[in-house]
Design brief:
seven-stranded mixed β-sheet, 241 residues, 41% helix, 8 helices, binds NADP nicotinamide-adenine-dinucleotide phosphate, Dehydrogenase/reductase SDR family member 4, Rossmann fold, alpha/beta
Length: 241
Amino acid sequence: MFCLSLRRLLSFSPTSGGSYTMQSVRGLQAPRKLEGKVALVTASTDGIGLAIARRLAQDGAKVLVSSRKQQNVDKTVQELKMEGLDVEGTVCHVGKNEDRVKLVNTAVQKFGGVDILVSNAAVNPFFGNVLDSTEEVWEKRLGPYCVSKTALLGLTKVLAPELRSLNIRVNCLAPGLIRTRFSSVMWENESALDQAKLNLGISRIGEPEECAGAVSFLCSPDASYITGETLVVAGGGQSHL
Ligand SMILES: NC(=O)c1ccc[n+]([C@@H]2O[C@H](COP(=O)([O-])OP(=O)(O)OC[C@H]3O[C@@H](n4cnc5c(N)ncnc54)[C@H](OP(=O)(O)O)[C@@H]3O)[C@@H](O)[C@H]2O)c1
């Protein structure tokens, strides 16, 4: 997935972000590293996307969550608001251009612009059908899935210099096996899980929150000198190219 750190590029009234608020300094609370930022996270009503949306909001960002189904968006917004987080939601199927345009316009309307774009499920011919998939389907369709994911490594390398002049950093997160509904066929069955663990340096599967912290870091001022990189969060599992 992509993490684009913009500088309020789409705002009607650009303001420079990046510094911590005086209020948090005066209150002697640790400054929240994404305070004042607006983050747009696609495919964020479940799994890794939801964990990212929650973490960015916990770190101070205003977050626009989205996915294909209105009821999922409504449930997520309600859940995160109950946790005291500053979120709004809208429906967006990442494969539909009109939805993507609406997504950005909604962020501009509700929050005044976008500083951070986390594109979860950006290009994925496999993703839509996977929840009904058996282990056999996974095996058969893993080829196209891997090709689509590998393309993101190259796209990250190309987009980073292309967007440099706009002050946009582009980085990529490459998760290993993370416990979500999407990957359940790999961990619900004990023998599949044992097999998967053989390839890992840390002998368990990852949790969505372990991806979220890495994304928050990449979007934050702490990563201000990092662009065009792919961060692997895979418990020491070997990369296959
Ligand atoms: N879990 C892993 O082990 C793992 C490992 C490596 C990479 N990944 C990648 O991480 C991403 C997220 O996977 P996950 O494991 O977190 O999945 P997940 O738990 O099944 O969550 C999927 C989320 O994406 C939304 N979604 C699905 N298709 C969409 C579309 N076309 N447009 C917009 N939203 C869509 C779903 O909501 P709606 O149904 O409402 O749309 C849901 O919120 C995927 O790109 C996956 O390939 C996952």
